[in-house]
């Protein structure tokens, strides 16, 4: 049988839907653990490459394709954007995506629309783009080691959370003296 598929059926996030038989209403639960791909997350916080992503999925055949509903759980590693302290966290996401059958589409008309539509390739679907979008959306824009991380001392770079009473007797840069004066005036 000749296949035009680009997807690798052995890839960790590629699922085979053949057993659903394209019968609307037929469904299957899938639980799997797969190694995280690179760049699953944002620059400052992401799922470590090859660490396990736990997936809990329901695949359901509908009229136009296969509806995938599920959730994913994974570890996160990154660093605080204020003080650069390493962050270890976890992320839970849920998602739902309809993968259209590729032989029922009107290829010409679809090409003109956005390519946000997920397509099956034969019986295979690739969960990775959907997972990636869900994870990125779930992450904080600016991850912090703690909600009120005071960051680093602007004068010497010390991590202020480690040293709350941190202070310098004399400003190193004379510009800071001017700022201090302004603050006094406002009080
Ligand atoms: Zn911090
Ligand atoms: Zn300092």
From TrEMBL:
InterPro entries the UniProt entry points to: YceD
Composition bias type Basic and acidic residues, residue spans: 163-173
Region (Disordered): 163-187
Name under which the protein is recorded: DUF177 domain-containing protein
